[in-house]
Fold this protein.
Amino acid sequence: MNQPTVARLSPLTWARTNLFNTWGNAVITVAVLALLALLVPKLANWAIINAVFEIDAQKCRVAAGACWGFVGEKYRLMLFGTYPYEEQWRPLAMSIVLLTLIGLTMNTRLWGRWLWISWIVAIVAMWVLMAGGVPGLPAVDTDRWGGLPLTLILAVNAIVLSFPLAVLLALGRRSDLPFIKTLCIGFIEVVRGVPLITVLFMASLMLPLFLPEGMTINKLLRAQVGFILFTAAYVAEVIRGGLQAIPKGQYEAADALGLSYAQKTVFIVLPQALKLVIPPTVNTFIGIFKDTSLVIIVGIFDFLGSVRLASNDPIWRPFYIEGLVVAGLVYFVFCYTMAAYSRALEAKLNRQQQR
Amino acid sequence: MAEIMARPTGKEASRFSLYDRDVQAILFQVVVVGAVVALVWYLAYNTVVNLERRQIQTGFSFLWRESGFEIGESLISYSAASTYGRALVVGLLNTLQVAIIGCVLASFLGVSIGIASLSRNWLLAKLTAGYIHFLRNIPVLLQIILWYTILISDRFLPAPRQAESFLGVFATQRGWYFPIPDGSTGYWAALAGLLAAVVGVMILRRWATARQLLTGQQFPVVWTSVGLLVALPLVAWLAFGAPTGLDSPSLRGFNFQGGSRISPEFVAVLFGLTIYTSAFIAEIVRSGILAVPKGQTEAGRALGLRDHVILRQVILPQALRVIIPPLTSQYLNLTKNSSLAVAVGYPDLVSTANTTLNQTGQAPEAILILMAVYLTLSVSTALVMNWYNTRIQLVER
């Protein structure tokens, strides 16, 4: 196929057409350039020119710029939290497996039964790798899990395990049965109407009260349950959007064939609806990934919590800011990649639909 | 359709049969509702037993007991001798304060950036797109904590003793200190003048529209409004002796006295929420404007309308219909995210409820109050925005 010819403009012509084509545009360009001239040197001075790159707290204290040595000194703590130092290859391996699997899942051509099986195997393997307790892997208490691997675990489990519940809630909300419908609407709207932090409080403070005497669930699992319920309400609304987008004729055709409600749902409606909602589900996943940082408030050290932990060292305390900046960039890389993927996938599915 | 399927057999259906879809539906619902009720009863029973065993009181009587804790900033008078109930109200007011100011600022910032990102100026469009993509992909909690750490760090801001004023404002690690008018009558007169001007402008606009509909003549509403808004307060201020007295902050010992103080906690929460939400609002505004078909602009030009009239009277009213629903959920998100204030110690509702809960041990009541308040806030915001939404919807025949 021939590529369309792209006109190559000289830089000067390009600037004239894009930056100075009208008087108004010229004024805007100059104003923006002035603002940049004011900010960029300051930022560059702080982040690069006056910054300290060696691991030397004394030098950092007298320097006028950033102290990236903090990150060099504390990167293990920032990444893995309080997970036992000699065992940190385990969360690292787990994260690599998980990220690879997410990467494979992003490729729509690989979608199929094998992917499902590898996900199930991987989730079991991840659990064994993290918790240990089998020969060769000493047991590690969940209280010591932390850092970026924990953020990944919380987010991935929330989205994967909430999905079945979310499908049921979405179907229930569109059901003709008044009581089922009321229950589902009630759950979805209450959870979506309150901040995540109250759900986490509920999970961390109320769950122990809900259980009979002598039965306890550990802190991490409680937070994870809170996350799953919270995510389910949001994903349910996304799925409902997909269900509504299925033409009525599909339902009628299934009825005409004499399919039962279960057959109609499983074989006709859900396969179409779920495909439609993949891009918005990725967006929900991005939100959940960012929201995992809230577990810091109920005393779990995810990535953000581990960065705070790293800054508790009195020698390095003033350089928490650098830790936060680096953490922010890491979150950005993850979220931006997923957002870009979601956009690309949406475009692809749209193209397929138009055919 | 469902009804046709459900009653295919006419009179026979009146006989009870497990294969009847109506019967199945009822049975299924009875089972599910029964299971839910049983679960709730079981959990509630366990909770009551557990609370009794730990000798924790139940009921809401703690609301009238003395709280015994101080709150850093409050819009109403409050001390450690006040009740828990009052402490929660203080927290609620702080939440509302930061949420409302945050929504207003985020809207202004978001709309400006959204419109700027559609600019034909390459530099401006790229920069604003960068702003949108960068800031919405970083957790808001991290942003709030980062702002707070910067605002209280001695690396970026001086201690009160070393602070130098900029236009009478002192920015220090312990907060920002502003001069405020000293309360002379002239200032109140100016405020009254401003209110009168606002009312005047509203009346003027109605009258001008009515006149234009009747006679076709236009009235320069914008310039008259600006004139009114400037002139009335100014005249009132001059008439009452043009006072210039200011209550300025001044250093006494280690801290400032007088003037007004904004705490670093408040600023951090406000900055974090505003900037994060503005990125989302900008994207909503951008796609809302893009959703208006190009033919609308062309039709406007064909009618000989000028560009700013096309934007205001043709594009924006249509774009708003797309913008309002997602904008509503952004306002709701901002309000809910204001609960993250607890992470930096701004005494919002979650923070005061958390202290109350830790002191009394009455977790169920405290969490119930929290959820009820946030639900009420969510529902009322949604109601107001839905009312506005129905007002601007296309009226079709």
Remarks:
- Chain A has 15 helices and no strands.
- Chain A touches chain B through 56 residues (CB under 8 Å).
